[in-house]
Amino acid sequence: MNRRYIIASLLIGIINASNLIGQEMGFEEYNPKSTLKVPGKEIKKAKFPFIDVHGHQYNMPTQDLAPLIADMDKLNLAIMVNLSGGSGVPLQKSLENVKNNYPNRFAIFANVDFEGVGSPNWTEKAVAQLEEDIKNGAKGLKVYKSLGLRNKDITGKRLAIDDPRLGPIWEKCGELGVPVLIHSADVKAFWDDIDSDNERWLELKTHPRRKRSNTNPAPWEQIISEQHNIFKNHPKTTFINAHMGFYANDLATLGNLLDQMPNMYVGIGAIIAELGRQPRNARKFFIKYQDRILFGKDSWKPEEFPTYFRVLESDDEYFPYHKKYHAFWAMYGMDLPDDVLKKVYYKNALKLIPGLDSRLFPNN
């Protein structure tokens, strides 16, 4: 066989193989750069000083806060609410660190350890510890999603969010005038089948431990209902429903819930992708419920904040989200009016969280 023919055949085979590699690329790898040319640009600093009501700093007892403050200033982040304050001595150390260095730039929420529910005097001890934590300077209570998903009482039974033994905790927060920021369940898609119809297919494939079912540990509707029960049963307590209560993809239902429960507010942490794909509908919702929505980010990744600013502030079209597995679709700006932006960015938080320094917000 002709040597040149053999070499040419090999080259053609290599070219065909490289083409096949592209054709066989999985959805995980496919992340095309848009060729669309439209006006708009990244917003790296919020238009107004803002309060992040959903922050997490796990090393605050010993943390050097200066680098954190420098990053906050670049974003125009005036006050970070650290929801990971803990309780007792660790909380006191965080409060001391903040007081000695940047007393007006952080607010810290306490946490309750729900292990041991059902043991003698558990409720009384938990309420007493919470009251002490608030007295020492905590500005509220953060409840993690482990309540409803993982926490069990001393008999091994799943601890329901609306368990009567927890009621005095919610009542104490109302009595002390501090809010409860609560995360319950997760997005409904985590309970759905992992198939071609599931919008969170990629996230569940890359994070398989997030998959839930009606028996692991309970139906989504049940867990959400338990959360709503405590809102209704404790009307004098203010609740901030994290992640818009996982109804950001169904704003009509969320609006009905806000109408039914006047003590429920919502934070926008980690759900900006839901708002960015329905800008006109979301804008109407934000204007209607402008007194009930608070800015929150959740994870501390400064490079992700510009997506939030751009969705809230601009009228830009079809710009990328920062985390493909979380949302594979593009974003659009809501172009919120300034008076609504101010409420979302800081006014509503100043109203709900006691003791924040309003001087950080000119003409508030």
- N- and C-termini, Cα separation: 85 Å
Shape: globular
Low-confidence parts = none
> What string, H for helix and E for strand, traces the elements in order?
HEHEHEEHEHHEHHEHEHHEHH
* Distinct helical segment count: 13
| Average pLDDT rating | 94
Strand pairing plus helix content: what structural class?
alpha/beta
| CATH C-level | Alpha Beta
CATH fold topology: TIM Barrel
How much helicity do the residues have? Answer: 25-40%
What is the total number of structural domains? 1
Portion in beta strands: 5-15%
Q: How many strands? A: 9
What's the name of the CATH homologous superfamily? Metal-dependent hydrolases
Structure overview:
The protein has 364 residues and is of the alpha/beta class. The chain has one domain (40-360): Metal-dependent hydrolases (TIM Barrel), CATH 3.20.20. Strand 4 (110-111), helix 4 (122-135) and strand 5 (141-143) form a beta-alpha-beta unit. The strands form two sheets. It has a six-stranded parallel β-sheet. Helices cover 39% and strands 9% of the residues. The chain contains 13 helices and nine strands. The N and C termini lie far apart (85 Å).
